[in-house]
Amino acid sequence: MALTHAVAHGAAAAAAAGAGKKAAQVQLQAELNTDDDFAHFLQRDGLLVVDVYTEWCGPCLGMVGNLKKIKVELGGDNMHLAVAKSDTIECLKRFRNRSEPTWMFLAGGQLLNVVFGADAPRIARTIEHELRQEELVRRGEQQRVQRAPHELTPHEQEAADAKARAEAARREREAAAAAEARTARREARARSIEPYFGDACPALLLPHAQKHLRKVTDALEPFGVVVADKCPLVVGREVVRALAAEEAELGVAGAAAALVERPSLALLLKKLPDREGDVIELSRRALFGDGVGAEEDPPKRYVGEELRAGDVPGLFVPADRHQRAAVLDLLFPKTVSAVSPPPAAPPPPHVAVVCGAWQRRAALAASGAQLLCYGFFADASIHQPRLLCKTLDQYEDRPEKD
Fold first, then answer.
1. What digits encode the pLDDT tens for the residues 330-351?
2. 224 C-beta neighbours (distance < 10 Å), count
3. Domains in the chain and their CATH numbers?
């Protein structure tokens, strides 16, 4: 453990020069880089004040002078200072992602308090308070708080709970916005296709059910729906993922493997001109019994159920107009593209990255063509950032580098 003895050296020099004052040797600061360093430091008597830092955001050097003064005037031998690297100390891992100074106050191996920020008056008040509390503990007039260094203080727990609530609310807002955008895209696509496929509906016979095509046509005939086109195809993994987004059963291991490895049969169902009703509803009623009451005795077993093989469905028919449009694009892309332009791809996700300004050149070089915009800000707050400038040249021209 590397120790700094600046004050002690100063006192020795004063004594050598014949100074009349008694020089107190003050151990200024210990550097803690490992779990063993930290555990050994916790064994010291008195109040321990630890400046916790990370590799990318170093110790709060601006407070050193203030802490020296506080130690000499208030703490003396009852107060010990240290800087601790949270990146390499396991019980400090909760501080690794923070970009502000972090101060821990410990005694008797227990965590007394945690203060965030470089607020010198507040830290001085906290030290005075904790020194008085420790004196009461030493005299047996008060019990020391029992809290391990890795545990959260009440203030930290409150902040963590508030952060978790804010994060949950943010995710909920993002999920709602994504769902709304997806619905809007699907509605737009359905409207663009319906003029050409209003009386048509796609369907998919999985590999093990292809031989039962006659059962499907026989079930559809009484409802005025015919198979207007059929196309054997091996569905790729990308299409399987897209189909699974429409029908979760198509994403189960057995169904996905079968679709990728063996040919399926894509069907284009069409309602006869003299038949009333929606082709999707008619097809679902004929093949799955959708909308049919349960008063039948005995209940009828529909083709969709007969063609199942365990948890793998044998037949898939879209349940609504949005699914119809999506599945038409997947199974009959050439037929659809002949009358309607392909759907617009959803916008890619946008990611905001925050890093220290000293990493500016490496960050800009790494982002390349994917970088949409950037700026230099006075702090790491993403809620109320204070913009300094918007280009690298403007930042380099600043007299001070924040």
1. 999 999 999 988 877 777 778 8
2. 17
3. 3-151 (3.40.30.10), 182-337 (3.30.70.141), 357-396 (no CATH)
